[in-house]
Amino acid sequence: MDEALRTPTTVTIAPDAFKGTASAEQAATWIGEGVREILKDATIKLAPMADGGEGTSELFKGERITLPTTDAAGRLTEATYTYDAASTTAFIDVAAASGLPAVADSPVPLTGDTYGTGVLIADAQTRGATRIVLGLGGSATTDGGTGILVALGANPVDAEGYQLKPGGGDLERLANLDTAKVNIPAGALDWVLLTDVDSPATGPEGSAAVFGPQKGASEEDVAKLDRGLARLCEVAGLDPTTPAFGAAGGIAIGITWLSTLLHGDASHVSISPGAPVIANASGLADLIAQSGLVITGEGRYDAQTAAGKVASTVSDLAADAGAVCVIVAGSFDAEPAGEAIAVPLENIADTSEQLRRAGREAAIRYLNTSTVQG
């Protein structure tokens, strides 16, 4: 053991945010402090990660811009996004304005909308943005992106020409999308939609069925929202079975429709899993290639995590590099793939101490693994 402690080790720490308790940067820092207590001579590299959910935009370089907007319930709030003038790219999290935490005390499953996110998009275009990288995780809405469309001047109307109420609860009455006042410069931007799920828009695996209950939807609400998204896809001329159309309450539906309207096809919309895109942008594979130990994690590790969120993306990179991978999580509802080591958080109130202890345990498990392997 003493010899192992004297052996310099490079450790890459690349967690997602632990929602509601620690940002990705905080989690990486606290885990690193725990690792340092055991691997005293280690080179520790912090690489906070995200998968398109809360905290994604702040991982990209650029100016942080804060402005007034509305939350999913239509209440005045402030939200922040990142604008990189050099690449004329705005990095926006749907969760920043339209996220679930802001309405957790009073969910709005039928009336919650993404108008506030549309305000951020329109603002970015006025600053010179030609591309929007939109993180689709963590939304409180199931409106098919119609709130964004309204903010950009495209209004959903019923058969009599009256504008629909905000949210997904009224979408089953949709007859048309009125583009008389559409903001063409904003709608015609290039879109990169980062998803943390690949759910279709509708059906038993769709947005309403899978995520509606998390947003406060009853069984009756789920059926209504599912019908609404189906109607939106019908009016928009889009296939509701398209993978990832169910992310963030169907936001990709509205954006794909608008971009196709303005460009003639959907070539200006890219839908990609968020974690691999962010890992590539941050050069994570190169960091991991230099590391003996890689630590990742998130609040809960479950079947969705294993399907391509941060922890699985990082553990795959670690396996490719031959590094030991430890996954830290508040709970494990599924077994980590491959040889990744699971370290659950201890049940104590202090989040920072939870993560420090997890870092210590990860380092000890690494030393034990190294000793076993010789």
UniProtKB/TrEMBL annotation:
InterPro entries, per the entry: Glyc_kinase_flavodox-like_fold, Glycerate_kinase, Glycerate_kinase_RE-like, Glycerate_kinase_sf
KW Transferase (keyword) present: yes
Listed SUPFAM superfamilies: Glycerate kinase I
Keywords: Kinase, Transferase
Stretches assigned to coiled coil: none
Gene Ontology molecular-function annotations: glycerate kinase activity
Pfam families noted in UniProt: Gly_kinase
One BP term from GO: organic acid phosphorylation
Family per record: Belongs to the glycerate kinase type-1 family.
Protein's UniProt name: Glycerate kinase
